[in-house]
UniProtKB/TrEMBL annotation:
It comes from the Eukaryota. InterPro entries: Rhomboid-like_sf. GO terms for molecular function: serine-type endopeptidase activity. One of its GO terms (cellular component) is membrane. The keyword Transmembrane helix applies. It is found in: Membrane. It is a multi-pass membrane protein. Coiled coil: none annotated. Its main location: membrane. Keywords: Membrane, Transmembrane, Transmembrane helix. This is Pc22g04790 protein.
Amino acid sequence: MLTSGLTNAPLTKSLLIYTIASSIALSLFDIKHLAVIYVSPHIWPYAQFWRALAWQVAGFTNSTEALFAAMLVYHLRVVERAWGKRKMATFLLTTLPYTTLLPPILLALLIRPLSLNNLNYLPSGPTATIFALLAQYHATIPYTYRYRIGLSLLLSDKSTTYIVAAQLALSQFPAMLLPSAVGWVVGVAWRAELLPGLSPASTGFRIPAWVVGEQERRGGPDSGSGGAERERYEDLRRRLEGEVASASGLEGSGAQAQRRANSAEAGAFVNRLTRDW
């Protein structure tokens, strides 16, 4: 995608703003102690089960985590551009119960007993949701180029995104590893159509189009149920080809061949998205 900034990614922009604003609010109002979870004493014996619902939406408790989370969300904006607002909103909503409830449940019932009560802490922040989105980035967005460092280390333009994600996952070692791992697993399970409940694979649930400011797309009698989706991706193909052509300011036969190659790559990318959908 050649579009810069957060253009055509309103949900990602909202998530980015919320991540920063909620983290700042925790510091301004001095309520960091209400956001994190200590299994003992918060869950046992005080029975503050509301923390299991609030820890992910409360924001990060330190500026380092907020910074790397914001950087990672910005990198993941291309997922929304590839999917569209409606699928992005459906993904965030249908994975939210899993990314919110699984980490505290696993920590209280499994990880803490296995660690002999040594692992007792769950840091706040939307880490699990971000890593679930990172799993979609890994599976959906192809790399643009690769480069080699030394003789054996092969990297791509996506490597910087994974480095930022690793920094976030290791920021409060080992406590932050749990929400990061759970988020990644939930994202992979969502993509593999394994999540029960509101998963589009199990119930066909999708966010209504009007919620994200879109109109319901319906196929005609001759086009079948997939006609609207094919039309949508044809529009995306034309937009990608137009961006490739406008971005390449070169002239001559060599430039024409390069533009045709870029257009073919854009078409293959859209076809891949169509199959994934």
